[in-house]
Structures
1.
Amino acid sequence: MSVTFPHGFLASGVTAGFKASGRLDLGLLLCEGDAAVAGAFTTNAFPAAPVQLDRRRVEAGAARAVVVNSGQANAGTGSAGLRDAEAMAERTGRTLGCAADRVLVCSTGVIGPRVPLDLLDASLPKATAALRDDGGGEFAEAILTTDSRAKQAEATIGRWRVGGCAKGAGMIGPRLAAHGLGTLLVFLTTDAAAEPAALRELVSDHVVPAWNGVTVDACPSTNDTVLLLAGGAAGGPSVQPGSVEARDLGAAVGAVCESLARLVVADAEGSSKTLVVQVNGATDAEAARTVGLAVASSPLVKTALFGGDPNPGRFLQAIGASGVVFDGSVVSAWLGDVAVVHRGTVPDPVPAGAANVMAGPEVLLRIDLNRGPGAATVFGCDLSHDYVEINSRYTT
Amino acid sequence: MSVTFPHGFLASGVTAGFKASGRLDLGLLLCEGDAAVAGAFTTNAFPAAPVQLDRRRVEAGAARAVVVNSGQANAGTGSAGLRDAEAMAERTGRTLGCAADRVLVCSTGVIGPRVPLDLLDASLPKATAALRDDGGGEFAEAILTTDSRAKQAEATIGRWRVGGCAKGAGMIGPRLAAHGLGTLLVFLTTDAAAEPAALRELVSDHVVPAWNGVTVDACPSTNDTVLLLAGGAAGGPSVQPGSVEARDLGAAVGAVCESLARLVVADAEGSSKTLVVQVNGATDAEAARTVGLAVASSPLVKTALFGGDPNPGRFLQAIGASGVVFDGSVVSAWLGDVAVVHRGTVPDPVPAGAANVMAGPEVLLRIDLNRGPGAATVFGCDLSHDYVEINSRYTT
């Protein structure tokens, strides 16, 4: 059900022709009234046109609808691209009967080509007519590019329902800034009522850390976008920061993000295995995440993971190359429960159990830096022949 | 001739049994008298035992010999590994008849296993007896691991001869600090006479920038080491910083480093193509190098290069994700002479000539950030099926 799991949201997905494949490629998400909105966007120096547009509109804190095309990223398209993004909002608003500045726009696909607006015009009535309160599945399908399947999650904690969907299988290594993900698109909805300021805090505390800890290929896209819309259909007063209600909502949003993050790395381009890196003992969470990302981004770790090769030296190398300052002689690491780094040294020979852990579909590496209270969990995947194959002929 | 191109140096390479393959795996380099020495070493937080040892000895500024084993990296080996490195220096010194603290040690190979000192003992006499003033070729062979061929270069500028050799095909993404490279080992020799302080300046100005601009897989090793030995056989007074002689020596050292850097990326694990990224218009050289490395390290750029796929959006994405601050709307880039980014926008359709450039064995990408005088050249390579194959079963 994804984005339509919370009451008060309608969604649809139709085929407009943006993708040559004939699969669903135009998604609409509509809130029954004005929703409070917060977002997080790519820090890439070439933000796509829809990112530039949404950043400004999310500042205002209110939204009614989101329109998404997949096939063209509307990135590297200059001022013409920005006019196209504005036109997408305006035409969607006109069709839905809401103000253009209440419509957010997302695009994903090839960087360079412009969005064919004639295809949008021809399919907006169909997408609008298809809007349903259980349309989250079609919406989640319509936003996909090289993904093999839709990624949806939901959680109910306390009074709140939170639903979400994500797309992204390559060019995934988000470095997000709140108020402001390769292309990673994440749509989160809730029936809670919340002021934009409270939503922004939620995004900073629960959404950005979760997604900045996900990597397929360490490539932050021009289009990475996470949007959180709070429609208020659950009723009652706005969620107040610091309250039990805010904690419940944060926990539900965090749970949905973690579920979606696991789905993203499991469906990563060419991926056959998931790598979960749990880092403890860092000076702070940011340092822990940096170490975890250094390991999960290393081509040598990723190829060893693909081959099931228990090569602890590569973990040692990657931990040491993170740029984070620590005392190597007190650092230890475990593959599952098998010690592969013990106080800065690598066991020789490598314990036999390590190969068993590396052979599994999800490999857990725990790292203790033994320095402070900072902890983070990072989700990654292997680097396979299929990744090379997919990405060596993406546009040709 | 590599390290024996300048007069005053002897070298050898023999088979000691460190590698299972039976190829040369023990190298000796001897200066006829005390040489002035300067070096640059990995900044990985887990520096290998020989790196820890050499850092201290290079501080003293004088060296007579270098001993190198290939097969075991002597990294992640703790205090036992440090004692092994010290023993390698001591036993080599004893055999050569020089003080142990004038012997530098380098190791390369698998991280974790200790160096079998009995193999060293058994082969040091043979390696010593094999020392010749044209032995640079055997030395350059003996330091290889996954490399397919020896990498040697030489230059004569003004009065000075400079020779060098390098090894390294994977775990290459050095972040060096002077006085202080996976494993990249580079040995540079000259017949110039120079004080250690003058050599250190040369390393900072010409050696570190060159090698920090080389990437195979963006993985800074535990063992990266560059050593520059000045034996003085050319005669005359020591080279004075700022002099014509210092400029000549710097130019020769720089030329040898660039030649070796090209050989390293051409022989990179699984590599079928070289990528040269020339960045201009940055605020400074460091910013230019950071942008170049972001492009040359991107798995999406590297797989597109492998497939010969002219996908300009990936260049745009990688330039924008470097973390360097600039105005995207004035940035342009060319594949050879074909514009692929024009003032922040990607041409649609992609110009036909782009595919021709991508099909060549060496692909030149020029980037102009249009912001300042900073420039740098970065050397990289493609990401192929062979890289995945080699690295998915390195120890198994």
2.
Amino acid sequence: MDGQPTERAQRLSRAAAQRLSLYLRAVAAWPADGDKIVPSRRIADAVGVSDAQVRRDLAALGHLGQRGIGYDAKELAAAIRAALGIDRGWRAVLVGVGNLGRALLKYQGFRAQGFEIVALFDADPTKVGQVVEGLTVEPAATAAARVAELGAELGVLTVPGTSAPGVADELARGGVRGILNFAPVVLKLPKHVRLVTVDVAIQLEQLAFQVQHGDGDDE
Amino acid sequence: MDGQPTERAQRLSRAAAQRLSLYLRAVAAWPADGDKIVPSRRIADAVGVSDAQVRRDLAALGHLGQRGIGYDAKELAAAIRAALGIDRGWRAVLVGVGNLGRALLKYQGFRAQGFEIVALFDADPTKVGQVVEGLTVEPAATAAARVAELGAELGVLTVPGTSAPGVADELARGGVRGILNFAPVVLKLPKHVRLVTVDVAIQLEQLAFQVQHGDGDDE
């Protein structure tokens, strides 16, 4: 790789980046029974987009694949990882060790993609000191200092909406560069801290919208 | 309302529908201290999009608001609900009563938007019969029959990826029209069943992508 894929990736739209994540899943699931070459058509089928879309998106990553044949699965996975910025490890902390936090900690999909949760925090003193998935829960009030100490770049927020703004500020103060927020609130963060919010009620609303109005015309 | 908002809503893009969900949050949070009028600018600030975008999106819902003044908060909320299809209740079932399932059941944000979980299912016989948030866990094998019986339209899947395709088929057979899937797999469903997938690892990847390449230019 000559660095060009990364430069190009800076111009990827968010929608394209989302599709790349899905392509990566499809490529990783590609049967390793000797066939190293995955046709764009198979990726398209697995993800539910058009063949042309896949080829266009992957062309933006640089010179990959052979016309009319397909992509080397390993090479393609590496190129997508590089474009997304997950060709290296990311250290994250998680705040809020309730049911949702525990569910995320159990989920191995993170680790496979290079994300490591290195510390847990909770504001509830009865939870502090508990060991969850091999990590000891620390007091939420120490989060900023610990983030700095651990060099964690990402924070996962599984706290109630009322606590989320304060906790997010703490994490930003500690030096995280991105927050994955599960609280149903819109957070205001310093400009250099990126935010992705997963609001389950909004996802349900979107599903209802599609059921109500959808007619199978897309997706 | 004369039915026109709904007709127009059919032409809403998914991106616009997502923004409407966010506007609805902002309008619902609008202080009720006598001021019933919410300026588009305040909605824009709360959601983090441009004023012009808000006005354009809301114009698509029909004749709402007064130029240069703002929108009646109650009327606007009702119009957005109608456009999204959540001006009525939705019955849903949940399959997979693990940590994630329990976290969702505790989350009151659903109910406030008209979504009611009416039955719980799990394949684990030791969980069947347990009462969780007021509902008794039923055997997963009975899901199709029960969905039909209860007239549930939506299914929430909080099962492992390996079980998700089979469970989704069952729910579709029972007659659900939409599935909210938390398993990290791409599900193939009959054309009339809509799908929204929440894949947390993908959200984390997107966050990493934004941290790596983002420069505060959007969001």
